[in-house]
Amino acid sequence: MNRRALGIYGVFFYLFLYFPLLIMLAFSFNNARRNVVWRGFTFKWYGRLFHDTELLWALATSLKLALAAAAVASLLGLLASYALARHRRFRGRGFYAGLFNLPLMIPEIVMGVGLLSFFAKARIPLTFWTLAASHALIALPYSIGTIRGRLLLLKDSRLEEAAMDLGATEWVTFLKVTLPLAWPSILAGALLAFTVSFEDFVTTFFVAGVGVVTMPIKIYSMMKFGVTPEINALAVCLLIFAATALGLNHLSISNKTLDSEA
Amino acid sequence: MTLTTEEKAALKAPWGTVAPLLEIRGISKSFGRADVLSDFSLSVNPAEFLTLVGPSGCGKTTILRLIAGFEKPRSGRIFLAGRDVTDLAPYRRDIHTVFQSYALFPHYDVFENVAFSLRIRGLEEESVRERVAEALALTKLAGLERRKPDQLSGGQMQRVALARSLAGRPSLLLLDEPLGALDLKLRREMQLELKNIQRRLGIAFVYVTHDQEEATTMSDRIVVLNRGRIEQLGEPREIYEKPRTSFVANFMGAANVLEARVLSSSASSVELKIEDEIDCAVPNSGPASAAPSGRVYVAVRPERVAVHAQRPDDQAPGILARVQVKEHVFLGHSSQVYLKLFEKSRRPFWALCRSAPMNGALAPGQWVWAQFRPEDVLMLEPVERT
Ligand SMILES: Nc1ncnc2c1ncn2[C@@H]1O[C@H](COP(=O)(O)OP(=O)(O)OP(=O)(O)O)[C@@H](O)[C@H]1O
Ligand SMILES: [Mg+2]
Q1: Predicted ipTM > 0.85
Q2: Which residues pair with B337 in a beta bridge?
C-alpha cells in the first residue's frame, strides 16, 4: 500500500478514536455554560468541581469501593489461579476455569438483576459492603486472567520444582518463589480490577444501597440537566487518572519477565 | 538428611559388597494410557557416576522425576540409603537435581541462588557464606556472586545450577542433559570438569544424556534404555565391546549388523556362516550360542573394518571379502566407505577408516578387499530384528 495513504488512514483512525475526547478536553476550558460555542479559556469549571462536595463524596466512595473490590478480587484471584495453574489435572478443572470467567460473559444487566434479587431474597440489606462484594465478583475474572497466565509460565519454567528439590516445602516455595515472581501480575490484575469497579455503572445502579453514590452514578444524575462543562472537566480528570493507571499497569507487566530462565 | 563419610562407609554391607545408595524396585509408571515404565528396577552405588542413555521418549526424564519425587509411581518402591522414600515429597529427599533448563531463580543473584537450600535449612550466615564460596570456587564462579541469572552466559548459568545443587551436599545428584544447551567445545570442557567434581566430592550422579560419547567418557556404568526397558547395563567398555543387542550396538557407537547361521559351537568358539557367504570361527562370547543352528545376528564395528586395494598378504588375514565400493565420504580426520558386501546383500555395510584408503582414490563401483578380525565379530542376542 502507498505509504502516504497509510499515513492519512492512520490520522483518521486516531481522530475517530480520540476526537470526542479532544472536544471534551477543549470544552472543559470553555468559558460558557453551553457546549456549542467557544467563548474563551477558563479554569473555573475545574475550580467548581473541587468545591462540589457531593461530587467529592462520590469520588471518595468510588475510590474506597474500587480499593476494596481490587483487594478482594486479587486475593481470591490469586488463590483460584494457584489452584488452576498448579494442579493441572484435578477433576473438573476446565469446568471451574470456565465458571470463573462466567461474569465476563453474562450481560451486566443480568448480573445486576440477579444480585439484586439475591440480596433481596436473602434479606441482606444493601450497603457499601454488598456493593463491594458485587464489584469484587465482576472484577474477579480480570485478576484471575492476568495472574493465571503468569503462574502457568512459572510452572513451565520449573522454578517451583527447583525450589522444592532444594528443600523448600510448598509454603516456603510459595513465599520465596511463586509470590515474588507472580507479584507483577497480581499488581496488574489489581489495577484492572480497580478500574472495572471504578467505572462500573450497570451493576452499581442495581445494587447500590440508598445513600451509596459512586462517581458514575453521580455523573449520570448530573447529566439529567445536559452535559455541563463541570462534567467535561470531571471526565478529563478521570481520563488523566485512567491514563496513569494504564501506564503503571504497563510498567508492572513489562518490567519483569521470566525470559532469563525460559 | 546428609550422610557423613562414616555413615556412607557404614552402608557397606559386612560381606564386602556395597549396599546401593539408591534402589528402584519394580517401578511402573504411565501417563494416561501410555505405559512409560513397567516393572523397572535399577540400583545406584554410593559415589557412582551412572548414566542413562536412550532415544528420545524412552523414559529417562521420567526416571529422574520419579527419583526426585516429582512423579509418583503406580507401583513399585524407591529406597534411598535403605529408607523407603517412595511417598516422600521432593523436599524430604536428600537428592538434588540439575535441570536442563537450569531453572535458576531470576529474582535472586548468583549468591542467593546457590545459598537457597542452605538458607532453607536455617544455616547460620557464616556457614552459608562459607559453603556458597566453596561451591562457587568448585564451579569456577568466584566473582560473579552479585550477578543476576539474566546477566550470565549459558555456560555460567549451567555452573550456577550445578553449584546450587552441590552446595546442599546431597548424597545423590540427578542431572538431566545438563550440557544439552552448550556448544560442543564448552560441552567437552564441562564433561571433564563435571567428572572431576563428582570424583572429588564422592557424590553419586545419575546423569541423563543422549550423547553416547559423553556417556562413554564420564560414566562408571551406563544404562542403555529402550522404550522404558534396560537393554544393557554395564561399564562403558563392556557396552562398547560386548553389546548384547543390535539396539545397543547401534546406539552406543556404530555397527554393521549382519545375519548369520550357527554351524557348530564349542565352549571356546562358534562356527558361523555370515550372510550365507562367509565361513568363520569367532570366540564364543556367550549369548548367541544359546541358539544352535538357529539364525543369529552379529555386529561388526565400522572402525574395525579395513579396506585394501590389493588382497593383503598378511600371515593371519582374518575375514576377507571382495566387495564393491558404493560411496566414499571424506570427513577430514577419517573417511567412511560404504560397501556392497555381496551381490544380493541389501544390508548396509560400511567401514570407518582413519586415513583415506588408497589416498582417497576410491571410486564407486570399484572392487576392493574388506578385512576384519574374527574377534571383532560381536555375537548379539537372538532377538527378532526387522
Ligand atoms: N507429563 C506427561 N504427560 C503425558 N505423557 C508424558 C508426560 N511426561 C512424559 N510423558 C511421556 O512419557 C514418555 C517418556 O518421556 P520422558 O520425558 O521420560 O522421555 P525422555 O527419555 O526424557 O526423552 P528426551 O530424550 O526426549 O528428553 C514419552 O513418550 C512422553 O511423551
Ligand atoms: Mg528428557
Answers
A1: no
A2: B328, B351
For A162, the closest of B103, B120, B168 (CB atoms) is: B103
Contact B107 A181 (CB under 8 A): yes
Domain covering B254-382 in this structure, CATH number: 2.40.50.100
pLDDT tens for A139-174 read 999 999 899 989 988 888 899 999 999 999 999 999
Q: How far is CA B351 from CA B263, B272, B325, in A?
A: 27, 21, 10
| Percent helix, strand and coil across chain A, each to the nearest 5 | 75, 0, 20
CA distance linking residue A16 with residue B145, whole number of Å: 54
CA distances from B330 to A14, B114, B301, B327, B352 (A): 64, 47, 18, 10, 10
Give dist(CA B8, CA A196) in Å, integer: 62
The correct answer on CATH 3.40.50.300 for the domain covering B5-241 is: yes
Determine whether the shortest distance from the Cβ of B56 to ligand 1 is under 6 A: yes
Do A62 and A20 lie in a common domain? no
CATH assignment at residue A135:
1.10.3720.10
User: pLDDT tens digit string along B203-257?
Assistant: 999 999 988 889 999 999 999 999 999 999 999 999 998 898 889 998 988 889 8
In chain B, where the domains are located: 5-241, 254-382
- Stated as kind and residue range, the H or E segment containing B305 is none
Cβ-proximal residues to A233 (8 Å cutoff; 6+ apart), any chain = A28, A45, A46, A48, A49
Closest residue by CA, ligand 1 atom 12 = B36
Terminal Cα-to-Cα distance of chain A (whole angstroms): 38
Task: For chains A and B, count residue pairs whose Cβ atoms are closer than 8 Å.
Answer: 69
Helix (H, G, I), strand (E, B) or coil at B325: strand
- A232 shares its domain with A220: no
Q: What pLDDT does B14 receive?
A: 46
Domain co-membership, A118 together with A211: yes
Residue A245 lies in a domain: yes
Among residues A88, A144, A155, A169, the alpha carbon closest in space to that of B88 is found at A169
Residue A111: give the domain boundaries.
53-227
Taking CA–CA distances from A257, the nearest residue in chain B reads B106
Q: Which residues contact A128 (CB under 8 A, 6 or more apart)?
A: A61, A64, A65, A209, A212
Virtual CA dihedral for B67, B68, B72, B73, nearest 10 degrees? -10
In a domain, A48, yes or no: no
Q: How many residues does chain A have?
A: 262
In a domain, A47, yes or no: no
pTM: 0.81
Ligand 1 neighbour B209 (Cβ under 6 A): no
As given in the structure block, the three cell numbers for residue A57 are 463524596
